[in-house]
# Entry
Amino acid sequence: MIYLELFFGFLKVGLFTFGGGYAAIPLIRETVLAHSWMSDDTLSTLIAVSESTPGPIMVNLATFVGSQKAGVSGALCATFAVVLPAFVVILLLMKLLKNAMKNPAVKAAVNNMKPCVAGMIMATGVFMAAKSFFPEAITVDAVALVLTVILAFLYFGSKKAFKKGMSPILLIILAGTAGVAIYGI
# Structure
């Protein structure tokens, strides 16, 4: 019985939450308190823990609540239920996009968005580099500056050397790997 309650309770959270994990907190609180799964104080503690652990807060909360009520199988049940609606929506969108990508106008629009995405990623990198170079006191992290310049040359140089250039995803992976190698975890 607890598994059905966890499943349908968190399925409702997954279905009717829009705006990210923080928007889900009131609905999760309502669901948890309505089923008397735990006290409001305990839930507040779990919210704080969920905010500080890696991963989406809504998934973390579902996992913690399910674990508290029914162990590992309860955690799996609640987590599956909360992500199921988003998973189904993504599958449907992928099916629609797969068919839409056959349309030349849609294909052209997507291809024209690629430089925008690369620009947003680059702007984020420049912003993060500027924040690390110029915090309260004006100090420059020379290693971060050199890393940014190297990654920029790799990205824009690949555009000149190869027809398609480097994938922005590959650039993100290279930047993350270099950051971990240089700064550690």
Notes: The mean pLDDT is 83.
